Each structure stands twice: as C-alpha cells, then as structure tokens.
Amino acid sequence: MYKPTTIKDIAKALGLSTSTVSRALRDSYEISEDTKRLVMDYAEKINYKPNPIALSLKERRSYSIGVIVCEVANSFFSQAINGIESIAYKKGYHVIISQSHDSYEREAINVQHLANRSVDGLLVSMSAETTDISHLQRLHEQGLPMVFFDRIVEEIQTHKVIVNNKKGAFEATEYLIKEGQTKIAHLANAPHLSITPERLEGYKMALQAYGLPFNEDYVQYCHHGGLIYEEVEDAVKKILQMPDKPDAIFVASDRLSTGCLTALRKFNPGNIHNLSIAGFSNSAVINLLQPSISYVHQPAFEMGQIAIEMLIQLIESNKPVKEFITRVLDTKFFPNKDLTEIKVDTIGS
Question: How high is the mean pLDDT of the chain?
C-alpha cells in the first residue's frame, strides 16, 4: 500500500529534528540557509507534497480570512470584495464576509465571531458608529494579522489602503463651482470616520481655491452614516431652512444620498430641480440615470486586491513585520455635461 512521505521521514533521512525540517519547509528565519537548502533539495528529490489538512493543524492555520464591511449591497464594497476574492482563492484562502451595517455593536460581535472561528487574518473597513476600537486593538495585540481599507484607524499600526479622498472631493466640489453653484452645503458622514475629515478638507480646498467662503453651518454631520433615516432628514431640513439657502449639496455616502433625496422630495418637491447634488459613485448603472450626473469613481477592485495581498504577506511572513505602509490610490472624475437639473452622485463608502 502506498504510504506518503512525511516530515518525520525527511528528518530521519537527513538526521534532523522534525521541528527543524518543518521550519525549513516554511522558510523560517530561524533556520540557516544551508539547512533550508539541504531540506528543500531532498524534498524535491523525493517529490514530497505536504498534506494540506495536516499542514493546517500543524501551523494552526485555517486558511480563511475574515472581511468586515458596512454592507455588501454597497457597490463600492461589492467591488472591493470581488478584488479580495480574486486574489484570496488563487492563494488557497477562503473568504468569510460580515456586514456591520454601520453599527458598532454589530461590528464588535462580527469581529469576535470571526476570531473565534480562527481566521488567519482580518480585512476591516470601519463602521460609522465605531469610536471605541478596543475590540480590534485587543486582537491585534494578541497577534491576529489585520489590514484596514477605505475606512481606517490610525491607532493600530498595520498596513492600510485608501483612496485620495481630498482630491476626489475637491474635483466634485470644483465641478459644481464651475457650473455656477456658489453656496454648496456638505452632508457629511460621522466626524470620527477617517474618510470624513479628508473629504471635508477637499471640499474646503475647492471653496478656497475659487474664493468662496466656508460656512460651518453648511456642514451637517450624520453620526450614524445614514443608518437612521430621521437623522438624515433632520440634516436636510436644516439645510433647506437656512436663511442663506445653499444651491448645491456635496453628499458623503451612498446611504446618505438616498436619504437626502427622499428628504428633498418631502420638504422641497417644487424646487428639487434647482438644487444640485454631487459626490462619488461606484454604481454600475450610474450612466443610465437621467439626467446624467458627474461623479468620482474609486478603484474599489484594485483596493481589495492590494489589501488582501498585504494581509497574506503578514500572515505568511517568516519574520515579524515591523514596517507598515499606507497605499493611497487615485480616483477618477467623470464630469456631467449638463447640470441644469438635479445631479445625484454618491460616495461609495
């Protein structure tokens, strides 16, 4: 009966310990180059193939990766997940996806559930409600590899992938200005979310570049990211009731834009076509909307690919990783040729 060669067999043949052979096969920094070469050459000679189940048990790895996003239905995140999966499955990893629905409680529960399932690492995009990151810090300190993408946290030292939010917000606001809008409000996400101050800064930079004043009253924050419709409705009502009412709104997320339009139809049905709305979008049907709209597109698929490659590098590294990078990807602006009617566009995250 055929009996596959084991690490014990290699160790016996070479006069080494099984732990040394195991580390050499994993290219561990603890093993000398000469010993690695000896083991690898012998393994190749006898056509040694590791047992994937035994390897998983031996290395205490599940070959699964947890992904936390606010919602899969969001075009931006669905595209990012496609990018993640395109790399993960090729490299032998399974992907487990959890949705926070922009809820801190849901995010914390999902993170712990994934950790309990012994995932090898986490890819995380923060929820709008999260201000306490102790659930992530604790796992990071315990050695669980994690990479943040899009919505990141600065306090945890690891790899991160974002887009140039300032540039995208600048271009969307600039386009509205060039089309004659001079009083542009900003419907913003939760102020503590990483994308919020960056997009606010781009908006302010555009106003300054064209000599327009920044009015703090024009910035309305939605601390739950649109999860609570009444919060969005209240913010839109405040914008419409301002003595110096804005003629345009720069909206900060998909869910906020939906709530914004619903509120505008409720409070301002007769003049809705006189108010321009602009922002970012990754929707596949964006060009089918009538009238056509201007929007900033984010490279979500590429972001997912880069994030998973970074995470696998952390998981499979034979040495402790002490240097981390933040990759900043560029956005692309698609102008609308006609802003004479309502313009609807959203940020993908």
Answer: 86
